[in-house]
Every structure is written in structure tokens, then in C-alpha cells.
Design brief:
Helix content: under 10%
Number of helices: 1
Order of helices and strands: HEEEEEEEEEE
Number of strands: 10
Strand order of the largest sheet: 3-10-8-5
Distance between the termini: 72 Å
Strand content: 25-35%
């Protein structure tokens, strides 16, 4: 009599690679980031990380030998390769404090800046309100606004990039 194939086994102590592959395909086709199946004491969790740039997905092969039974259930995890964030061109203007961003001097006014605008050194880019005090954030140098990274009314942290100037 031949040995049972781990892919077709009903034994909960064996990692079911067929189930892992099926779950991975479901993740890919549905866009989910995590899926988990539990059968008896065996729990299979398949997860992936989403990145801003498309990344080539690399899957970790699940072992085909029986896994030792431990007090916590065994978990098989599949993760996506993490792509390094692309470096920004230009200088980031960072928030000097924790607060709330305002893109204009008062509601209904035009914004101080928008993408593509030319700015001069010292020109107000936006305002960060902290403790009921409006703090104008000046351009550190002359240049072109490549990107505005925050929105009106958005809370920001100390050191968070606000604007990119070329």
C-alpha cells in the first residue's frame, strides 16, 4: 500500500499544501490581504502585504513533512516581497510640530500653493494649527512645488513630510 499524499490527507497534523496553494490563489484573485482556515487543531493563515508599487510576489513553500503538534496551533504564512519605497526627487518640507494643516488662510480662500506652482524662499506654503495658534510654514528655498502630500484639515505629526519642492 502506498503512502498517502500530504496534499490529499485528512490528517490534521500534516500541512495541507493544496489548501495553502488554493488560499494563496484566492488572495491573489480577490485582492484580499489575509485569509485563514481552521480544521481541528490545524490553522492555516495566508497573508500578504500590499505596497504602493507593484511587487513580484514570492511565496514560501510549505513543508510537506508532518509538523510537530505544539500547544498553539501551527500556522503557515505566505508574505509578499516588500518593495523599497521610491526616493522622492526634491526637498521635503516637514512639519515642525504636531497639529492640523490648513491649505488656505481662511475658509473659501484660494490655497496658498498647488502642485506646479513656483514659490520663493519664505513664501507661506500652508498653515499648521497647534494649540489654537496658526503657524505659517515657509518655503525653505525658491523652487517648484512637485507634490503636496497633505490635505486641508488633515492632522500631522512632527517631522511628517508636507510638501516636496524641486
Amino acid at each position: 500500500m502506498s503512502k498517502p499524499n500530504p496534499d490529499e490527507s485528512d490528517d490534521n497534523s500534516v500541512i495541507d499544501t493544496k489548501t495553502v496553494r488554493t488560499l494563496a490563489m484566492i488572495l491573489k484573485s480577490t485582492g484580499l490581504t489575509e485569509i485563514e482556515v481552521e480544521r481541528g487543531d490545524l490553522r492555516i493563515r495566508v497573508a500578504r502585504e500590499l505596497t504602493a508599487a507593484p511587487a513580484h510576489q514570492t511565496y514560501v513553500a510549505a513543508p510537506s513533512a508532518p509538523a510537530p503538534v505544539a500547544s498553539p496551533p501551527a500556522v503557515a504564512q505566505i508574505t509578499a516581497e516588500v518593495a523599497a519605497p521610491a526616493a522622492r526627487i526634491g526637498d521635503e518640507v516637514k512639519s515642525p510640530m504636531v497639529g492640523t494643516v490648513y491649505m488656505q488662510s481662511q475658509p473659501g480662500s484660494p490655497p496658498f500653493i498647488k502642485t506646479g506652482d513656483r514659490v520663493v524662499e519664505g513664501q507661506t506654503l500652508l498653515i499648521v494649527e497647534a494649540m489654537k495658534t496658526m503657524n505659517p510654514i515657509p518655503a525653505p528655498r525658491a523652487g517648484t512645488v512637485l507634490e503636496v502630500l497633505v490635505g486641508d484639515g488633515q492632522p500631522v505629526e512632527f517631522g511628517e513630510p508636507l510638501v516636496v519642492i524641486e
